[in-house]
Amino acid sequence: MGDFITLSQFLKKQNLVSSGGEAKILLTEGQVFVNDHMESRRGRKLRDGDSVQVGSDVFMIRTNKS
After folding, report:
1. For 25-65, what is each residue's pLDDT tens digit?
2. Is the distance from CB of 62 to CB of 52 less than 8 angstroms?
3. What are the C-alpha distances in Å from 39 to residues 29, 34, 64?
4. Count of Cβ atoms closer than 10 Å to residue 19 Cβ
5. How far apart are the first and last CA of the chain?
6. Are 54 and 47 in contact (CB under 8 A)?
7. pTM exceeds 0.85, yes or no
8. What CATH number did the domain enclosing 53 receive?
9. 22 in a structural domain
10. pLDDT over threshold 80, residue 66
11. Domain boundaries, position 31
């Protein structure tokens, strides 16, 4: 995964959206929180230890470290 993943990429990887357009709608509607703060940027960089909440689902970001 590297040092970061963008919020849009993460939402697609988790099958929460199927496109960047769907991600934009979800973010515009205020349904996505990063570290307990509403997030509206698709390009927001998520790093190890960040939390993402979409509805009642909460995800913790973990990077693969060698």
Report:
1. 999 999 999 999 999 999 999 999 999 999 999 999 997 76
2. no
3. 10, 6, 24
4. 11
5. 12
6. no
7. yes
8. 3.10.290.10
9. yes
10. no
11. 5-60
According to DSSP, the β-strands at 45-46 and 51-54 are unpaired
- The mean pLDDT value for 5-23 works out to 95
The total number of structural domains that make up the chain: 1
Cβ–Cβ under 8 Å, residues 42 and 7 = yes
Question: Can you read off the two tokens belonging to residue 16?
Answer: 């929460």
Indicate the residue type of 24. Answer: K
Give the residue among 49, 63, 55 at the shortest CA–CA distance from 11.
Answer: 55
- The secondary structure of residue 21, as a DSSP letter, is H
Q: Is the pLDDT of residue 10 over 90?
A: yes
